User: Fold these one by one.
Assistant:
Number 1:
Amino acid sequence: MDITDVRIRKINDEGKMKAVVSITFDDEFVVHDIKIIDGQNGLFIAMPSRKMGEGDFKDIAHPLKSETRNRIKEAIFVEYEKVLAEREAERKAAAEEAPTAEEAPAEESAPEETE
């Protein structure tokens, strides 16, 4: 089974959940709502899950082999880093395009009215 698409659907700059991802296998099967979480030991993926009671969660879909989980994780992290780099490049480009205080045109003051 090949990973044919990885889409970073939402990125959060705040909090522990950094992104929500969808991944497609063989252009035929998609898994939504995989989360990238910033944990104590760095980033990890959390498979889609459902709350089962008092704080317990159960995975809805998950790989059975650790090799498969690692392939999924690597594909997701490659795309996540790519999207983060693109966002950073866009921020830098926007910052460079924004006029500085010296470059901004001076506002003309309206003539004062006298009574």
Note: The first strand starts at residue 3 and ends at 11.
Number 2:
Amino acid sequence: MSYSASTTRYDSMPYSYCGHSGLKLPKISLGLWHNFGRDFNEQISRDVCRKAFDLGITHFDLANNYGPPPGAAESFLGRILKDDFASYRDEMVISTKAGYLMWPGPYGDWGSRKYLISSLDQSLKRMGLEYVDIFYSHRFDPRTPLEETMGALDTIVRQGKALYVGLSSYNSKRTKEAVAILKNLGTPCLIHQPSYSMLNRWIEDDGLLDTLAELGIGSIAFSPLAQGLLTNKYVEQIPAGSRATQGKTIREGHLSEENIRRIKGLNEIAQKRGQSLAQMAISWVLRADRVTTALIGASSVAQLEDSYGALQNLAFSAEELKDIDNYAQEGGINLWAASSNS
């Protein structure tokens, strides 16, 4: 069945300016990290993307290595852009990244000019696009001069292959250095994409949020649900087939009795707020407008709709925030952090 977007898609979604730019992003963005590769049902993935756009989620985020296999998520989006979204391209923000292993040999990883430009060329072909709206350096490369990596981003914008550039998982110190280089080149940094959740607060400890505010750079928080830990999925037991049982990002050690107790405590707070735990986790990331947009994943339309429901209650009382901290910061479950930003 052919797709026609909902005529009410912009009625409820709030949009925020990204840093000091003129670009607005929806408060919730859709990430294609999981559930959009070869091993997932393509019709379900297509239904999720359609529903996201109908809800006003105009930002779709990828990376060259998303799959499996690497490149599969971009190829999928290329098909849906052609089949469903061809007439809506100018209403969409498409982003992708490069920085992790994509092909064998010395030129398929990290942050060299050779790798970044070659990778984006491949990404554009997979998606059937002439340009992406945002292109990221996916991680800091300690062995490549930062001037080379940022110079490649500048070249990409000047070639018309990306409208904006961003950073992902750079710590505060490296972000300041990278932003200064980009500013001197004449291509400002638009946005930073760090991991951030109630259970993973490295960007607060590092001072990255303050740095982004000072520099006028937007932010998009990935893994606000801590790869599913902050959902009802793990409140009672580890479900069969979950990421914890498959060794995917979450390890069973993270689901100790103590950590499950903390997750249950957070779930009780969410219930008192009239939210699911996932909704509260997304609301918490977006609190006080410190984060421009929360990047979510979804394996079904129902999951997507539940996450969207977070927008109904973004306010927290001081007491709620204190109670959340009491559970979430009892030692922490820090699964992710800035990558090799020495």
Note: The CA atoms of residues 235 and 263 lie 6 Å apart.
Number 3:
Amino acid sequence: MLSCSPDSLNPEPALNGLLGKWDATGTAVTEAWTSGEKGVYRAVVTSHAGPSPEIQELIEVKKDGDDWYFTGTVMHQNSGLPIRFKLVDCKDDRLKFENAEHDFPQNIEYFIINKNKVKARVSGSQNGEFKEFIIAYYRSKY
């Protein structure tokens, strides 16, 4: 298993494992990951609960200088402004991004269970209380 040292974090093996479309268990939400230009990964989180699909969040993961960042733009939150989380740890089956200054969440993690299952863990402190939620994703059949 590959490991990322603080001097050379390389999330690309794990990011490549995220490529494709994922269905969130128990919801009508999908997360679709693509890669475009080298070293840039993007995801679109879409809700299919209403009469037509609605984009919930846009995600971009890319290297900026010596560091990798997860940038999320959640629709209808934070005045539509993106929030950056720095990659702080990774393995070939796990990514951990952190932004200690953000109100909630401060941590976003992805765990690649196998080629057809991924878990996302969103956690941190909110109003002095620890909170987290975990989303189980399965590779979409569509």
Note: The chain is about 5% helix and 60% strand.
Number 4:
Amino acid sequence: MIFKNIHLPSALSLVALSFVLNSCSDSEVNASDIPEITQAIYVVPESYTHEPYKKYATAENFYVNYKEKIRIWGIYAINGTEIPTEKSTEYYLTHKWNIDGEETSGSYVFCSFDKAGIHKVTFETVDHLGDTIVSHANIYVNTPTSVSLQSPADGYNQIDGKSEDGVELSWKISGIDPWETSTCVLFASHNNYDVWTSPQGETDCNESVLFIGDFDLKKDKDNKEIDHKTDNSTMYWGIRATIQNELGHIEYAYSEIFKFSTKLKNDGSAIIEIPISCMYNQFPEKSKLSGAFISSVGDTLASFSGKKGNTVIRETLAAQSNVKIVVCDNGRTEFGCDSTTVDLAPSTKNIADTLYLLDKVQPNMVPYATEISTDDPIKFFVLDNGSGVNVSKNVAIMNKDTLKTKFEDNILSIPNTCKKECKLYISAEDYARNKAPEVYWKIEVNKKETSIKGPFAVTEGSSNEL
């Protein structure tokens, strides 16, 4: 950066200079008696509050990340020694910033750039003699770097595990700016948890690689021999890009972890595995899953029944397209049914996306009895044949008082605190966050007998009375 050096007297120097000129006409004033002022631009993190020259260096070019919050700071030096910002005001009349054509004032400005590229910064100062000091800087804002998959498709399962031709892996890297260079490293492992500790070699980021090897595992994680007629092997891989700018600063960009699988060594049939999850099911052992695999023309290829919730259904079928899998929960009926469709290529093992069965039914609530002894608690059946009643969400309010409740064997017990006529509001919710209908009940006490009437709809006006 080029600084304009100006001989600028301080307030005391101006007084001394005036005295010399007025009283000693034959004296000479040396340039060395007048302090020399320079200025510089610093770019620091927004949160940095100390004087920037104590930790950072000035430069003509700064490199920051997209939307990174920074502080652009103008610093003055007298005779080559930086001075604190709060003590610099006596050395100038005005100063201003121009950032990408927009002007602002202040010793520093806060900003972040939501547009990648080169941003121009000018810091302009007018001193007490009317001279102008101008400093320039460029802020290089990095484009966010990303690595996306091109081929093979994630989850591709038709790789020959013994082929000498290998498999071509290709990806696309975006966000490399003109002032940056990049190199890529391929990582791969049969264990998806070990991918980023298993480098396979460095390559050009803009070129694909031919990955050659024996992709069929010999033994599983339990050291048992793998039968490749019924089980394939999966390779997990990813790309790490190393990006370096002109100052040598380095950042890394990682792809997602992708995978491909080998073909089965069988007669051409396909294996399908489909994970099934009954969402928020507190009682998976009470589920009774049943379903079928149906061909594209409506024929039942296979069926199953009596499976517990949160399981994996596995079936071997002839290779074909548009196989529909239908699953229902006949035990916890509120989970209902759902389905998905898959294509089965020859000699492949296919793991479908998890099929989620959802409980969308509200809990149901009815009085255990409508006539009770006044000394007995008020009881309600709260029934839910899905995810189950969430006991922590049971609330009973009578005449604006919240009552302590007890829930056991689907029965909610509430102390009878009513003296004559009361409104009882009960809220209940299941683990799938379905709420019971918003209603209230009329409690009428006649000496030793209490009656429960309702339910009655809670209107906007009546809800304030509860």
Note: Residues 81 and 106 are 21 Å apart (CA to CA).
